[in-house]
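name: query_chain
kind: protein
chains: 1
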Amino acid sequence: MKTKIHAIAGVIGLLTITVFWTSTLFTELVGSHEAIATVKNAILWGMIILIPALAITGGSGMSLGQGRTDQGVLVKKKRMPFIALNGFLVLLPSAIFLATKANAGEIDTTFYLVQGIELLFGTINLTLMGMNMRDGLRLTGRIGGAATGSTEGSSSIEFRQNGPVMVSDLENLVGTDGETIPTKPTMALCRCGASENKPFCDGSHTSTNFSDAKLSDRTTDELLSYEGGEITIKYNRLLCSTAHECGDRLNKVFDTDRDPWIDPNQGAVTEIIDVVRACPSGALSYELNGAPVRHEVAQDSIISVESNGPLNVRNVSLTGEEWCTGACETKYALCRCGVSKNKPFCDGSHRASGFSD
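structure:
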């Protein structure tokens, strides 16, 4: 529901500014002073729609992006303050001033100067909101072919035996603070948990006798099915990195205090698909209308360093590893604490071990 509210409010805000901008430009070019005054008054009243739309879009967007380190989400969150400030500090005061001047018949140099400022900042907001809408559609997989995910470019991962994660040709590496980390053609990332230079390797794995072997007492590798009236949810506990995206986003469907803890009938299909998309480890997938099982993966090629947690990877090639049942080869979480029983993949052990950056 929150996702829908965010999208609807964003579209309303974008359309409202578009109408303001085009009607202003048209009347300034061919309209009479009376027509200009009518448009200015209409725009002022239209602020009753625009300001709440911007506030709802920004508030819901920040709420949806809370705790997420996806590059697309981070960029959207950085644009929102500029959009809000433009709306409250420039567009609203300009609308009030221009309506007052037009009603007084003062269509003078000052009027046109402020009008130019309003059009300029309106254009800026239209551009920023359009970019946010585009990135939102990309994140949801609705444009750019991101619904099933695809490994783009030549970025790749391989592992040194009992050593670091070797990453090649990666463009997007995001740190625990959400900031982009400069990349090199080849990087060694820590997976023993002991580096003093996390997320990078400093050779500590040699002194800690780190082993990357899978353990025989790891969680059973099985893909469980939870059938609903419209959608079937698939889940492999061995893949779960315990990011809690499912419970935090849709607790009525994913409730660990209930048995079974997953009940597809408690949520809408679109809500469940959004949660599957948000799952960073690929532990969740779904089956709909008899179609093949699907994972939802955004299209960007990225490694995000989760705070006190794993490396969340999207669309980076990984070969030569034993994949778990139902795993997604374009979205997975790699152990960074050194204690996973299912290395190189995260199994949530970092929480119990007290791993810290």
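note: Residues 148-357 form one domain.
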